[in-house]
Design a protein that fits this description.
This protein is an alpha+beta fold. Helices cover about 25% and strands about 30% of the residues. It has a single domain, classed as Alpha-Beta Complex (tt1808, chain A), CATH 3.90.1570.10. The longest helix has 17 residues.
């Protein structure tokens, strides 16, 4: 993952930027971070989960490719693999020119991140397990899933006050417990293998 040299001081500057490519970026502390290509398995997991959520929520409430502004030492916008929105949030996003959940909008109900490989202390690991966990908690997102194919684990976190508490780490044939979506009946293996 490489970082571009550009620095932005507001979300509006970032939204106005166009480098003429289809490159995926996240804005981290005012700097563009090239997210690179996702592993095919990560993409399949996110798409398979989308198909599962379609059985319990309206397609209007499922977001993929939507960014979310989060608190950080400087302006930051994350690009989660999958989000489940509230109806109010869907209506607000539908009135905007770009699909970005700004700081003054309500939080989504759930964010799902599929982790790229990395060991503790690596950029990928720290971003998914430390930075985003803190940012999403500060943003008030009630539920956060960390899906880690390399470690064969699905971690479900529930917001308790200002911090996440672990609902569980699910592996193999464990049923993944979702406080927000108890009607889902998915095993960790189904999620990790995209069905």
């Amino acid at each position: 993952m490489t970082q571009a040299k550009l620095r932005f001081s507001t979300i509006e500057e970032y939204l106005a930027y166009d480098d003429g490519t289809d490159t995926r970026y996240e804005l981290v502390d005012g700097v563009l971070v090239n997210m690179g290509s996702e592993k095919r398995l990560n993409e399949k997991i996110a798409l398979w989960l989308l198909s599962q959520f379609l059985q319990v929520v309206s397609i209007d409430l499922i977001a993929r490719g939507t960014q979310i502004a989060v608190k950080s030492s400087s302006v930051t916008a994350r690009n989660p693999d999958l989000m489940i929105l509230t109806e109010d949030l869907d209506q607000m996003l539908s009135q905007q020119n770009q699909s970005l959940i700004t700081a003054n909008m309500p939080a989504p109900v759930l964010i799902v991140e599929v982790v790229s490989p990395g060991e503790p202390g690596s950029e990928n690991y720290d971003r998914e397990y430390i930075d985003k966990r803190r940012e999403y908690a500060e943003r008030g997102i009630p539920e956060y899933w960390i899906i880690d194919p390399a470690r064969s684990v699905v971690t479900v976190l529930r917001l308790d006050g200002k911090q996440y508490q672990e609902v569980g780490q699910f592996q193999d044939s464990d049923i993944v417990l979702s406080p927000s979506f108890p009607q889902l009946n998915l095993t960790a293996m189904q999620i990790l293998k995209a069905g």
